[in-house]
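ARCHIVE CARD
SHELF: 3
SLOT: left
DATA:
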Amino acid sequence: MDPSTSTSPFVPRLSTLLPLARAAQCASGPLAAAQAKEVPFGSLKYYSLCGAGGALCCGLTHVWILPLDIVKCRMQIDPAKYPSILSGFRTTGKEHVADEGARGLVKGWFPTAAGYSMQGFGKFGFYEGFKVLYANLVGDEIAYQYRTALYLVAAASAEACADLPLAPFEAAKVRMQTTVGHPRTFRECAPLIYRNEGAHGFFKGLPPLWGRQVPYTMVKFACFERTIEALYRHVVPKPKADCSKAEQLAITFAAGYIAGIACAIASHPADVVVSALNGKDAAGKGFVEVAKQLGFRRLWAGLAPRIIMIGTISALQWFIYDGFKVAMHLPRPPPPAMPESLRKKMEKIGK
């Protein structure tokens, strides 16, 4: 996509890029070199690098938080045995250390790293693309006025695609972490799933995975975008362009944590069903049947550790992603501004 031909408020306008270009021509040293290195917005390289940044931030953060994820899954599967975070860590720690040593606390690290890296590539890369695509389809005025809806639809589209490669790894991960006697490694677990259930065993959790991840990502991206916009408009005393890179990354981290708390709550019931579907007592059962069996109260089991986990993951992901874009010289436009044509219309009607 050529930014000079786009009217979308989500694409850097030529009028805003020209002053930067002239400044770079007059500048010398690192500033001019940095301007020259910047990747063209909307190019294949731009979206590919956005995907690479998503793979990096999602893969790393999910592995880092793996011990808490294990406790969260076990609280969802067996709340009587794991009634709280602290007792869950004590019980899980004793079981793992006695059975497998300290490495048991990172059981399932490979399917976690591989699955969420693939998912992150699609989630962030496709989101950037869908956001601009949909904005161009509806026009700059509608895109600005209904930007929250645009964020939601773009995020849902991206996540639906990104979950396809995640589903097989998620199925293996949950079984490795929660099923007693199940293989301890992915290379042993994957063939066992295929032998017992065929390809269906890897993808039977896809509908509830969509039920968990699509609302999660919709809230995550829309809440982040609007929180960033609100912070720069009402909290930060200067425009984004005048903030240092460190200040911008700190604001990104804060907005990411706020978005993480919101999306953890929105997606939690589906997350519980995903864990239960891959448990030993759910063989042959569907999403709705398992949800009814769990009941309303059980659907919220493990919410506290998940808020901590997802809030931390979300903040770190946005921080790493934004830092990666800085390192790779990717454009980082300011929050959307009202199109001039819309501003004139609003002035005419006195708004």
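SLOT: right
DATA:
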Amino acid sequence: GKEMCEKLWDGAFVYEDKETHAYTWDWAVGESNPNNAILPSKAYPENHCPSENPEMAECYTPTYEVDARVNFVESRVDAMEQHMEEALGHDEGCGTCHAIYHHKEVSSPTDFGTVQACGQYKDNACCTAETANVVHNDELYGEEYRWDRCGALSEKCQRHFVNEACLYECDVHVGKWRKHDDCFDEVAGEENKWQISGMPLKASLCDSFYEDCKNDNFCANDDTKSFFDEVTCEASQCRPFSAIYSGGKEMCEKLWDGAFVYEGNETHAYTWDWAVGESNPNNNILPTTMFPDNCPGHSPDQTACHSVLSNNDAELSGLKAENKKLHTLVETLQAQVESVVKDVAGDDNDGEGFAIAGFVVGFLALALAIIAMVVALKASKTSMNNCLKPGQGHVTLEEGAI
């Protein structure tokens, strides 16, 4: 389906796994167009084509003020998103490690010394140097989970497995994708604090992973193709990666039992591949996606966090002010939209009515997106304050600000 949609119409469409950010052509007559709610802040081109000059008089006059205000709000939303990325997306020096296996309780700058692996996480790591020192062998997960059970992997293939282990053990953002919110697996009937699910990886990374490993031998469960589901591995079970997986998508999504998903929109996807000394690019990915609550009975010591995160107070105060202004604007715009809707309801001119109604639907989608964003901002701020000691001077968004 991916190749068919992307190539049949010469690149007109792209295959999007994240369906809340994707359009459709399939809904029933009588239902509202679901595309009205997709990417509402995506702007139309500024100018019409040179040969086109559509008659906008009927659309423009009744909605002139609302249209101008919408444009203003959109510009503020863009600025607000940039501020959020600056406040939430940098190398924070502290954060709860919500995936719990060999992890530290709290991420922090880490001196990896002469350890060869995971050095790219030195500014902020959930792993210790001792863990990083054994990610490449069976000491960390046990003999049954070695990735070289079918013989030594090529250097370029093994590099991906080492980087994946470093991502899981060291990157604080992995905790956002903990599979069980309450840290208990109902199906297995046991505690599960370690498993992650659905973390988006860059499609290009997965494709490179497949290309670098396709000729190496590996062992995975025949049915699930999961590495975890095949704890023993006889020589007769060993096959090239290319005989197990059809490509990078299947390999990333099935090898670790659903821990990752293949994401074509790489601005919304994580990576495990960057050079030591560069800042962690994952800090800028999905900054408003929330971390889960702490596992029951897990209360990590956050003493060291406040001095680091207090530097964010000024930025968060600015975001709080923007939030209040934006809330006031949304209220005003909603009142104006209600007025326009009343005009539409009493208008017998079908052409004008439909044009205005279409604008109103689009605007309402935008307003809902704005409200969702400011709610996410509040939640993001709350998540960051989880890293602060109770009673210390962190920013608190007033209830009336949302």
